[in-house]
């Protein structure tokens, strides 16, 4: 790996048409992923993390959603300007994606094996038709599918949630992607299975050196899997940095709240938990000023009057807060 | 929408053409004008055929005392007639079988396949008898038997001679259970009790009861069956074996070809023996009949007709007659119209009032209907004054020179005030807020009228609106399937429709008290009256036709008083259009013959009165050329009013 | 606000607002509503009875109410006054005046002119604005009264079948088990009965009146309404709010009526217009084939059948009825389309 | 351990569901002989993974299902065989909060009605009385009074869960069953709802049954925690013990699998690699044996019973105690 960026997202904004007029759900988001690294995009529902991922794949719901500003480059090429045919080759090939609910992402009328084979058909012209079946089997073994020979002929409904996610991962990896976008892939899974899947993604990444964009709301999972973290709140990035730094020393009050508000296994039972008070604002009424100000325990008048920018805090750290480092 | 616009444009265009003065310049062609000139000179022939004694006939083995009769009608056909040609016609559905007896044989085209003349035929001008397959007839002393001497020249269409064996075979066949036709089994066992052969050309037929001679002839006249065709026997496989095998015939046309489900082709029998009789001369002129199956109703048939693919099209209904007059092919004279009057044979018809239904048991209420039902307005409006109003329960009952109907019976004209009086007498003395009369029990004078034919709705709507004026509500109930069943079960209030009849009526089954309370009988009215029973019983017992006729008239007058039936109308004419090359004699029709257009099926049970028309190939050529060139003839309506009632 | 369950919930209100934004659907809805309401008062616009008669200083309003015999106005007959004639008579003898409706003909009476036979072409003079049919009945009157019958029939049919279908469908979905199984089988068998043929057979044997006709329609029409409702109920009953209601001790009836039906109604509402136009079409088709309502009930099907057989000689019959039918069915289709768009859950996906 | 009679007691509870209408052979074995007691005033946590029967257990306790066998006692009274109309006192005394507040309330009804509905069903209170109660509840769960006329979709997930809590409290129940009450909520508001629940329990002396798949949350909320697996209680202990001294191999695996918000404490080993068996085809013997790293021969044939292995600590494992 030469340290060149695999994916570079530069200041993209995404807007959606709704009944109440257009809303900007992603505002000026930038980050980059290097090969072999995992970037976690973390935030609550509605913060714009999934929309960001969809923008990279150019899978925003047409015609309601569109990228209004910014640039996305993948291996130096501008994704947003690629012709549609090129996009087909990119999707599932060089960039692939896994989703939260594998049951809906898999076609219920085809067998697991057939669905993996289809990816091979689309993106792996080098594999002869006859060689496909052994290749599929290899893929299933690679994702540690129990008894892969018989599971190949199974339909999605015959598989458990964990197995389905394994099939999804096998499909995602079948095209030998350079970048894997994982959109909450373990949220619907049980913790023991989640642990297995996380370990699997880590192992696979180690083996083939792909970049991973991991989207989640679970700080536990972030801590478990990522190298770098991007924390989003209300359509904006509020904090970025290396995972150890961010967890050891969260700067933004929101990041702090997120990390502290969940009970730890060694907490004292039935004691009051630290909270972030208030509610996540709706995209229809994002304030023009600091979007976290009305929930922030440290906010003052100037926070409610001015708009903070995402600024360098220390090397590799960026924070969007007027009081960064002071509270 | 598009169609509607186009139609409107067409109508406009047509109006313009009609208005154009140049249109008056009609094209006259040689062939047409020659034939029309010859036609002008034609005289209606003498159709009479009185029964005469023929002393020359003697048959050994039969009593010497037998008197043999015959009749000698003259030439009836037109001397203008030309032989040959093809007449194109349609059938609404392909027949289910070519058999004429047995399962499914009772279809509309049965006569096509059983076109044998009977021993004697009925003269449709005078209802006298004609020689058919028998040249002579004689009456046995028992008053039940008729002897027939067969025409020795008669042949089957396959060339085999006709003999008495074909009659005995017919008798045996009709009595066989293997034909699976109980009606025939019953008639030829219970009614016609014997049929014997005396040598190859004489037979005797015996009925189960004594009858007047004319009656006896009517009942014993029968048609043979080709014994050779069936190998002389009928067995269990008859129904299946002969499903699609048409018998040879002694009539003029035989089935020459067919495509199942599509068409039937009939051809004239070569050197048909029937031309021996003078009255068949210049008749059955057409060589070939092609019947194409055309489904989809009158509008479709009409299109075929105007395209020139059919030679004739009926225009009986007044509105159709009026509408078709505007068709360009008629306006330009390529199609002629023929219009001839006749006297229909019509049984008890009109509105039947069920005397078992609440207030309809009151004769005053029923008589009120005479004034409340505005038949005349219906005729004058919807029927454009063209149907004839009927005053009696029977029309056209003339037989052996005797008229059976009382023509003095007249029904009153529509009169709401008079109807109101009668209804009031029947208890309906108040008028409700909706204008309908009410009686003391609070019953409204509302009667449900059931009927079976959708195209009668318009007619009945007129009656309904008019009846309101008399305070009578008619609820129209169209029952396309079950109306007759409802009638037979006396499960109705009023019924619009009627019964068919024989050449003279026998009202016993309708009005005798025996059946008054039984369902599934023809006493629909539930009518019982000892006076009526007396008349009906006397009619049954009477052997003399003249006295029978007097009794019939008395019965009709009694029914008139009782107001069981509100008679409606009859159609006194047949009319339609034919392409100009279909030519007719100047006399289009006979007095009692309905469908003079029907050219092929000559024997439908009552007589040989068809087949006058012919195809003129020269005219055909000319008309087709004229049509191509856009030249118009003067439009023609050929009308024969000889039999128009006053 | 005391009984919040009877107020419109905001989702419904939002849908209605959205429907109002769908122009052609909303305008069709308003136009159709006006037409239906007007048709309920057709007697005032199209009638052989006068609106007002002034006779010898007294006013009469014959439109609704009892038949007024001719004798009332000094005429020589006891049956219902012919107001068109009366108008002329009174004008002549100066004893009063008559105000006739715009179209002075009823849907039943036949107007025959001396010497010319109907159908009469449209005419402003005779006030047969769309002409007459082949027995002289006014086309406008037959169209409007036919419309009224058809729309009332369809509304009654659709609402009753939906009511039955919803109740049974809900119970099937909610109770499930043997109840569901038995009803499913019954409905499957019932649906095998070719409904229109049955109506035709019944119609040809015994011409039913409006109520019986409606009953036959309902007997055969309810079953198809159950499936969607049943499926919806199956889905709804698995949702937590039903369990929550059960945990509160809510009765089955309460759960169905308060919780399930309002949620299921959405699909029903979007199905309604299509069901209504379907009912109008079937009624028209049956009338056309002669298996429909008792003649001389004014009906579009009967007009179409007349129009087709006389399209060359009397094109106004077919033109009028086809136009009217097209307009109404297109309007209903627009309403249906509008409702579907307005109720389409996709349009209201909340952004996540 | 207090000597008081438990408020709810479940004895040998077996709950089977037939899958498919006629397929009697496809039976989901949701609960397979559960014995558990809920003490008055405590919070009993139920934890386990998909299909372990924790939701089924609490619904069975509420008698929303008819048990296949075994019995349920509420305040010492056997309610197993009661008919729906005789269950009114149970319905009044036990209320429930669901995972997804959007799902658990009818979006066509306004908040006031939603909160008042239990009162409508169970009491004869007048409309003003009901409204007064509803407004008080709104205040109690921290929502403004003007919420009364608004509709659920106008609220965020956390607020909706507050509405659900208010509804659950309307009848002043003795027991509150919380079935995954925070799993569907935004991370930042989860703790708010958890704090609210703890506060309400203190104030109202509620008995709570708290169900979640997240062991850390259950542990924090509960006095005692029962770990469930395939319709069986595997381990039952007070919440401190369950983390510090887990005895059952499954509990250990579960703890190991929970990702902690601390990158320096990443998993050192994956708990187990196998699949959890389907509740349709139960394994013989110990239900966990297929994934158990410590299984012995006996596990295959004999199902371990839940035994007290230390005071107040119950465990169902042949290797323990």
How is this structure best described in words?
Chain B has 19 helices and 29 strands. Chain B is an alpha+beta fold and 646 residues long. Chain B has a domain at 349-570: Dipeptide-binding Protein, domain 3, CATH 3.10.105.10. In chain C, α5 packs parallel to α8 (210-221), α10 (240-247) crosses α11 (252-289) and α11 (252-289) packs antiparallel against α13 (315-343). Chain C is elongated. Chain D has 321 residues and is of the alpha/beta class. The two termini of chain D are 20 Å apart. Chains A and D meet through α7, α8, α9, α10 and α11 of A and α7, α8, α9 and α10 of D.
Compact summary:
Chain B has 646 residues and is α+β, with helices and mostly antiparallel strands. Chain B contains 19 helices and 29 strands.
Produce the secondary structure layout.
The complex is a heterotetramer of chains A (327), B (646), C (352) and D (321).
Chain A: E1 7-18, E2 21-33, E3 38-42, H1 49-57, E4 65-74, E5 77-78, H2 84-90, E6 95-98, H3 102-105, H4 112-123, H5 132-142, H6 148-151, H7 161-174, E7 179-183, H8 191-208, E8 211-216, H9 219-225, E9 228-233, E10 236-242, H10 243-248, H11 253-261, H12 301-305, E11 311-314, E12 317-319
Parallel strand pairs in A: 3-8, 3-9, 6-7, 7-8
Antiparallel strand pairs in A: 1-2, 1-4, 4-5, 9-10, 10-12, 11-12
Helix pairs in contact in A: 4-5, 4-7, 5-7, 7-8
Chain B: H1 2-19, H2 30-40, E1 52-53, E2 68-70, E3 86-91, H3 110-113, E4 120-122, E5 129-131, E6 134-139, E7 145-150, H4 164-175, H5 182-191, E8 192-197, E9 202-207, H6 213-220, H7 238-241, E10 253-259, E11 263-268, E12 288-293, H8 298-306, E13 312-314, H9 318-324, H10 328-331, E14 335-341, E15 349-353, H11 363-372, H12 375-380, E16 388-389, E17 398-399, E18 402-403, H13 416-425, E19 430-431, E20 437-438, E21 446-451, H14 457-469, E22 473-478, H15 483-488, E23 494-498, H16 508-511, H17 530-541, H18 545-562, E24 565-566, E25 569-570, E26 573-579, E27 582-583, E28 614-615, H19 617-629, E29 637-640
Parallel strand pairs in B: 3-12, 14-29, 21-22, 21-23
Antiparallel strand pairs in B: 1-2, 2-6, 4-5, 6-7, 7-9, 8-9, 10-11, 11-12, 13-26, 14-26, 15-23, 15-24, 16-25, 17-18, 19-20, 27-28
Chain C: H1 10-21, H2 23-40, H3 42-45, E1 52-55, E2 58-60, H4 83-93, E3 96-99, H5 139-175, H6 177-192, H7 195-205, H8 210-221, H9 223-237, H10 240-247, H11 252-289, H12 300-309, H13 315-343
Antiparallel strand pairs in C: 1-2, 1-3
Helix pairs in contact in C: 1-13, 2-13, 5-6, 5-8, 5-9, 5-11, 9-11, 10-11, 11-12, 11-13, 12-13
Number of helices of chain C: 13
Distance between the termini of chain C: 32 Å
* H/E element sequence of chain C: HHHEEHEHHHHHHHHH
Biggest sheet character of chain C: 3 strands, antiparallel
Q: How many helical elements of chain B?
A: 19
Spatial extent as radius of gyration of chain B: 27 Å
In percent terms, what proportion of residues of chain C is strand?
A: under 5%
CATH architecture of one domain in chain B: Roll
Q: Quick one: CATH superfamily of the largest domain in chain C?
A: MetI-like
Q: Which spans of chain B of ≥5 residues are poorly predicted at pLDDT below 50?
A: 1-22
What does the average pLDDT of chain C come to?
86
């Amino acid at each position: 790996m030469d340290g060149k960026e695999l994916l570079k997202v530069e200041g993209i904004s995404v807007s959606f048409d709704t009944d109440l007029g257009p809303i900007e759900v992603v505002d000026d988001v930038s980050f980059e992923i290097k090969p072999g690294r995992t970037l976690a995009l973390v935030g609550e529902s509605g913060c714009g993390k999934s929309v960001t991922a969809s923008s990279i794949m150019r899978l925003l719901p047409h015609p309601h959603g569109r990228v209004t500003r910014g640039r996305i480059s993948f291996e130096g090429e501008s994704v947003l300007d690629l012709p549609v045919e090129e996009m087909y080759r990119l999707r599932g090939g060089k960039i692939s994606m896994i989703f939260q609910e594998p049951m809906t992402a898999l076609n219920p009328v085809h067998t697991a094996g057939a669905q993996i084979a289809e990816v091979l058909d689309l993106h792996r012209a080098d594999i002869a038709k006859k060689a496909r079946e052994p290749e599929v089997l290899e893929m299933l073994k690679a994702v540690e599918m129990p008894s892969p020979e018989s599971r190949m002929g199974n339909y999605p409904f015959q598989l458990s949630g964990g197995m389905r996610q394994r099939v999804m991962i096998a499909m995602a990896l079948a095209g030998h992607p350079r970048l894997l976008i994982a959109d909450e892939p373990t949220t619907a899974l049980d913790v023991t299975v989640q642990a297995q899947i996380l370990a699997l993604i880590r192992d696979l990444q180690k083996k083939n050196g792909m970049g991973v964009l991991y989207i989640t709301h679970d700080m536990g999972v972030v801590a478990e899997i990522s190298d770098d973290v991007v924390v989003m709140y209300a359509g904006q990035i509020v904090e970025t940095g290396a995972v150890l730094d961010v967890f050891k020393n969260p700067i933004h009050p929101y990041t702090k709240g997120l990390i502290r508000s969940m009970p730890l296994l060694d907490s004292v039972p039935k004691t009051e938990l630290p909270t972030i008070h208030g509610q996540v604002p709706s995209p229809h009424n994002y304030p023009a000023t600091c979007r976290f100000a009305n929930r922030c325990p440290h906010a003052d008048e100037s926070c409610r009057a001015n708009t903070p920018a995402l600024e360098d805090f220390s090397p590799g750290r960026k924070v969007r807060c007027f009081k960064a480092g002071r509270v | 929408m598009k169609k509607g616009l186009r139609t409107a444009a067409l109508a406009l265009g047509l109006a313009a053409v009609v208005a154009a003065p140049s249109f008056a310049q009609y094209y006259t062609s040689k062939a047409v004008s020659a034939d029309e000139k010859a036609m002008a000179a034609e005289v209606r022939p003498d159709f009479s055929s009185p029964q005469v004694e023929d002393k020359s006939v003697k048959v050994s083995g039969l009593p010497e005392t037998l008197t043999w009769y015959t009749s000698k009608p003259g030439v009836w056909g037109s001397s203008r007639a030309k032989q040959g040609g093809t007449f194109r016609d349609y059938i609404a559905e392909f027949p289910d079988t070519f058999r004429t007896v047995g399962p499914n044989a009772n279809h509309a085209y049965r006569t096509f396949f059983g076109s044998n003349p009977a021993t004697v035929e009925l003269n449709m001008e005078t209802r006298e008898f004609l020689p058919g397959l028998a040249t002579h007839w004689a009456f046995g002393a028992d008053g039940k038997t008729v002897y027939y001497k067969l025409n020795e020249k008669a042949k089957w269409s396959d060339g085999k001679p006709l003999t008495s064996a074909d009659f005995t075979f017919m008798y045996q066949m009709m009595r066989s259970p293997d034909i699976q036709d109980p009606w025939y089994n019953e008639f030829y066992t219970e009614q016609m009790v014997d049929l014997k052969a005396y040598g190859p050309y004489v037979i005797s037929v015996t009925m189960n009861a004594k009858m007047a001679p004319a009656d006896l002839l009517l009942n014993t006249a029968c048609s043979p069956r080709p014994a050779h065709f069936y190998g002389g026997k009928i067995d269990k496989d008859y129904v299946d074996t002969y499903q699609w095998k048409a018998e040879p015939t002694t009539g003029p046309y035989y089935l020459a070809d067919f495509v199942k489900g599509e068409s039937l082709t009939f051809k004239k029998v070569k050197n048909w023996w029937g031309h021996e009789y003078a009255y068949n001369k210049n008749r059955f002129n057409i060589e070939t009949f092609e019947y194409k199956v055309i489904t989809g109703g009158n509008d479709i048939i009409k299109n075929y007709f105007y395209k020139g693919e059919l030679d004739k099209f009926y225009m009986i209904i007044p509105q159709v007659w009026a509408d078709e007059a505007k068709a360009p092919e008629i306006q330009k004279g390529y199609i002629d119209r023929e219009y001839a009057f006749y006297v229909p044979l019509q049984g008890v018809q009109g509105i039947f009032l069920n005397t078992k239904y609440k207030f309809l048991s009151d004769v005053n209420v029923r008589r009120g209907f005479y004034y409340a039902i505005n038949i005349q307005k219906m005729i004058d409006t919807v029927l454009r004054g063209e149907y004839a109003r009927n005053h009696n329960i029977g029309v056209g009952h003339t037989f052996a020179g005797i008229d059976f109907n009382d023509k003095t019976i007249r029904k009153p004209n529509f009169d709401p005030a008079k109807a109101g009086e009668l209804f009031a007498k029947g208890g309906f003395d108040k008028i409700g807020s909706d204008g309908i009369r009410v009686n003391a029990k609070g019953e409204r004078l509302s009667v449900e009228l059931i009927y079976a034919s959708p195209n009668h709705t318009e007619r009945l709507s007129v009656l309904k609106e008019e009846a309101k004026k008399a305070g009578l509500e008619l609820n129209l109930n169209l029952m396309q399937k079950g109306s007759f069943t409802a009638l037979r079960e006396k499960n109705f209030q009023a019924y619009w429709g009627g019964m068919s009849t024989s050449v003279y009526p026998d009202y016993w089954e309708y009005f005798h008290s025996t059946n008054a309370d039984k369902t599934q009988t023809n006493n629909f009215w539930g009518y019982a009256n000892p006076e009526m029973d007396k008349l009906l019983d006397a009619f049954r017992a009477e052997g003399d036709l003249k006295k029978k006729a007097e009794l019939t008239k008395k019965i009709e007058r009694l029914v008139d008083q009782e107001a069981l039936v509100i008679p409606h109308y009859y159609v006194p004419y047949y009319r339609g259009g034919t392409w100009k090359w279909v030519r007719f004699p100047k006399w289009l029709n006979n007095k009692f013959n309905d469908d003079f257009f029907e050219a092929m099926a000559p024997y439908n049970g009552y007589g040989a009165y068809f087949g006058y028309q012919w195809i003129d190939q020269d005219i055909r050529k000319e008309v087709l050329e004229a049509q191509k060139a856009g030249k118009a003839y003067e439009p023609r309506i050929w009308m024969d009013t000889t039999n128009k009632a006053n | 606000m005391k009984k919040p369950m009877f107020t419109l919930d905001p989702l419904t209100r939002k849908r209605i607002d959205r429907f109002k934004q769908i122009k052609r659907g909303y305008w069709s809805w308003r136009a159709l509503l006006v037409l239906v309401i007007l048709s309920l008062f057709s007697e005032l616009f199209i009638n052989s009875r006068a609106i007002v008669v002034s006779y010898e200083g007294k006013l009469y309003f014959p439109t609704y109410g009892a038949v007024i015999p001719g004798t009332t106005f000094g005429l020589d007959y006891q049956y219902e006054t012919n107001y068109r004639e009366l108008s002329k008579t009174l004008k002549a003898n100066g004893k009063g005046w008559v105000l006739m409706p715009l179209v002075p003909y009823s849907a039943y009476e036949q107007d025959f002119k001396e010497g010319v036979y109907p159908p009469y072409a449209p005419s402003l003079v005779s006030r047969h604005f769309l002409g007459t049919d082949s027995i002289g009945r006014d086309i406008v009157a037959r169209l409007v009264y036919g419309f009224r019958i058809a729309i009332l029939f369809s509304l009654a049919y659709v609402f009753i079948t939906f009511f039955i279908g919803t109740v049974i469908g809900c119970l099937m979905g909610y109770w499930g088990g043997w109840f569901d199984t038995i009803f499913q089988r019954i409905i499957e068998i019932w649906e095998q009965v070719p409904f229109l043929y049955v109506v035709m057979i019944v119609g040809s044997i015994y011409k039913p009146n409006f109520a019986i006709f409606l009953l036959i329609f309902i007997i055969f029409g309810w079953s198809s309404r159950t499936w969607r409702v049943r499926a919806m109920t199956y889905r709804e009953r698995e949702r937590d709010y039903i369990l929550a209601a059960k945990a509160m001790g809510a009765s089955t009836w309460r759960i169905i009526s308060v919780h399930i039906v309002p949620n299921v109604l959405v699909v029903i509402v979007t199905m309604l217009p299509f069901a209504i136009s379907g009912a109008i079409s079937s009624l028209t088709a049956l009338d056309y084939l002669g298996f429909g309502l008792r003649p001389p009930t004014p009906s579009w099907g009967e007009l179409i059948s007349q129009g087709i057989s006389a399209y060359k000689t009397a094109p106004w019959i077919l033109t009028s009825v086809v136009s009217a039918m097209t307009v109404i069915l297109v309007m209903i289709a627009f309403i249906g389309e509008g409702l579907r768009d307005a109720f389409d859950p996709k349009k209201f996906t909340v952004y996540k | 351990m207090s000597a008081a009679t438990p408020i709810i007691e479940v004895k040998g509870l077996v709950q089977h569901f037939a899958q498919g209408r006629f397929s009697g052979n496809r039976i989901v074995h949701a609960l397979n002989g559960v014995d558990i007691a809920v003490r008055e005033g405590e919070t009993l946590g139920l934890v386990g993974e998909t299909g372990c029967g924790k939701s089924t257990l609490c619904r069975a306790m509420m008698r929303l299902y008819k048990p296949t066998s075994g019995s349920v006692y509420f305040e010492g009274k056997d309610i197993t065989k009661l008919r729906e109309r005789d269950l009114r006192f149970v319905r009044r005394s036990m209320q429930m909060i669901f995972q997804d507040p959007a799902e658990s309330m009818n979006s066509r009804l306004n908040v006031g009605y939603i909160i008042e509905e239990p009162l409508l069903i169970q009491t004869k209170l007048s409309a003003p009385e009901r409204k007064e109660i509803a407004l008080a509840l709104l205040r109690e769960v921290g929502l403004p009074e003007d919420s009364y006329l608004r509709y659920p979709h106008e609220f965020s997930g956390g607020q909706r869960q507050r509405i659900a809590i208010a509804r659950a409290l309307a009848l002043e129940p003795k027991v509150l069953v919380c079935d995954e009450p925070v799993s569907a909520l935004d991370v930042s508001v989860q703790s708010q709802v958890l704090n609210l629940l703890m506060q309400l329990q203190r104030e109202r002396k509620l008995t709570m049954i708290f169900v979640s798949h997240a062991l850390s949350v259950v542990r924090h909320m509960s006095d005692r925690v029962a770990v469930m697996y395939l319709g069986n209680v595997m381990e039952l202990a007070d919440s401190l013990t369950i983390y510090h001294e887990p005895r059952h191999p499954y509990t250990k695996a579960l703890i190991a699998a929970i990702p902690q918000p601390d990158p320096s404490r990443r998993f050192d080993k994956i708990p187990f690699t196998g699949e959890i068996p389907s509740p349709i085809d139960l394994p013989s013997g110990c239900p966990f044996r297929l994934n158990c790293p410590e299984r012995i021969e006996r596990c295959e044939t004999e199902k371990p019973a839940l035994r007290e292995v230390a005071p107040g600590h119950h465990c169902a494992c042949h290797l323990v105690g």
